[in-house]
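Question (not urgent): is this output format expected?
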Amino acid sequence: MRRALATLGVLGLTQCHSPPPAPPAQPAVQVPAVPVPPTVATVAPPPVVPPAAPKVPEPPPPRLVSAGAVIVWIADPKARGGFRSALVEPAPDGAKVIAERPEVILASSKDLWVLRTKKTYAVGCAECDKCTDDPPCTRNALTPRDEPYLQSLRTRRVLEPWSDAFVPSKGCADDLSSQDADATLTGAVGPVFFAEVGKSGMGCHSAHPFSDSGPLAFDLDAEAPVTLTFPAAPLDTLKAAAHKELTAEECASNPDNDPDPSEATAAYGEGGVLHGVYAFTMSAPYFCGGGPGHYSILNTQTSPWLPPELAAYGKLPAFAASYMASKKATFAMPIAAERVAAAEKEMARH
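Got this back:
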């Protein structure tokens, strides 16, 4: 009986600890498929192209020079002033030279001018070592030099366009041991000639010499300096070209700066057509500065645009153009038809 009850107890305990029935199976949930967009190839954006520089407009047609003859400058390092001069008039076969001089001859509307030199003196301190003493240095020395000037072949009148550069220093009083000056003719168009005028010297206690030079444009009709201006239309393009060339040699002190317009001149080219010649400078250290004053570098650009002051001399007559081409000459000064005979006689005077 106890065994039966034990068996029933075990059975009862077994039944009491049976796991609960499993829950009924849930129906499967269907998740709707999300459509995948087709793959699109990635396209790189086009490169950014800087805006093109504005095109420089064409200059007005060159104005033809009316001349009965022309004075042509022919480069010659042995000639006084660096050029020989030929008076040329039209001829049946092109051009005829009616007078020549082995030196520079310049023409205004009324005169021919010849380049001459005279003896003058530069003043320098002869005792720089005493300039810090008490009493200070006072003894000066004179150094002879040649000073150029212009003389009319018709009236013998004298012009000294660069005389300011040749004013003597005060030597010891200016603390200068030496002084010099020079004027070099560089070209001519119409009645205007171009020159480079400079002063140089050595201070009594300076580490190296000083040099100060600059351009001169002089109108012989007005007998006064003239400022030749840079034309506005091509200026930005000319500056950009000059900047590229000036900064290529890594000498400019401030390569990000724009170059400074320095000098506007002109020269004749193919077919006797005048073109503008424009110089730009940038500051530079003394050791590599080959421009004005040795603290700058210089670059020259050409353009069919002319300085407005020279627009009246835009194209030479055919006879002059052909003669200049044969001599590789680029500078000429016109002579009016009524002045040719007188100019021929003046060319023979000394």
